[in-house]
Design goal:
By secondary structure, this protein is an alpha+beta fold. A 3-stranded antiparallel β-sheet has the order 1-2-3. The radius of gyration is 49 Å and the shape is rod-shaped. The termini are far apart.
C-alpha cells in the first residue's frame, strides 16, 4: 500500500514531484499516483526571474532618468539666477536680477539679492559723493596753503609780511588737519 501524500523522487537524473491520493469508488479503493518533472517548472521560474531582473533594471533606469529630468527642471531657475548674478557682477550698468510672476523661493531670493544690489549701489554712490566732497574741501585749503608758503618764501616779502603769511599758513594747516580728522571719523 502506498501512503497518500506528496514526495520528490529522482529517476534517470530527472527530479519528479509525485503525489498519491486514495480514492474510494463503488468497486473498491484505488490509489491514484501522479508524477510531474521539475524541468518545465524550473525553466518557467528561470524565465520569471530573468524577466523580473530586467523589469527592475528598466524601472530603476526610468526612475533615474525621471529624477535627473525633474531635478534639472527644478534647478534651472537657480542656474539662470546664478548666470544673471554673474553677469551683473561684471557689468557697469544698473540692471537687476529678473523676478517672475510666481512668488516662490527663487523669486524671493532674486528680490532679496536685488535689494542687496540696490543698497550696495546706494552706498557706493554715497561713498563717491563723500570722496568728491572731501576732494573739493581739501583742494581749496591746499591751494591757499601753497600760495601762502610761496609768498612767504619770496625774497621780496618783508619779515612782517612773512610772519603774517606763515601764521596764516599755520591756520590753514590746522583747518586741513581738522578736515582730515573729520574724514577719518567718517
Amino acid at each position: 500500500p502506498v501512503e497518500a501524500g506528496t514526495d520528490s523522487i529522482e529517476a534517470d537524473g530527472v527530479s519528479y514531484l509525485v503525489r498519491s491520493t486514495h480514492v474510494e469508488t463503488g468497486t473498491g479503493q484505488w490509489t491514484v499516483v501522479t508524477a510531474h518533472d521539475f524541468r518545465g517548472a524550473a525553466r518557467i521560474l528561470e524565465s520569471v526571474a530573468t524577466l523580473l531582473a530586467v523589469s527592475l533594471g528598466v524601472i530603476a533606469l526610468g526612475f533615474a532618468a525621471a529624477a535627473w529630468f525633474v531635478s534639472g527642471a527644478a534647478l534651472r531657475p537657480v542656474t539662470k539666477l546664478q548666470r544673471d548674478a554673474e553677469r551683473l557682477a561684471v557689468a557697469a550698468h544698473d540692471d537687476y536680477l529678473p523676478t517672475g510672476p510666481v512668488h516662490d523661493e527663487i523669486d524671493a531670493l532674486a528680490r532679496t539679492l536685488n535689494d542687496l544690489l540696490r543698497r550696495t549701489r546706494e552706498s557706493a554712490e554715497r561713498e563717491r559723493q563723500i570722496v568728491s566732497d572731501a576732494s573739493h574741501e581739501l583742494r581749496t585749503p591746499l591751494a591757499i596753503l601753497n600760495a601762502q608758503l610761496e609768498v612767504a618764501a619770496s625774497p621780496s616779502v618783508s619779515d612782517a609780511q612773512r610772519r603774517l603769511d606763515l601764521a596764516n599758513a599755520r591756520t590753514t594747516l590746522q583747518l586741513l588737519v581738522r578736515l582730515s580728522q573729520g574724514l577719518l571719523d567718517l
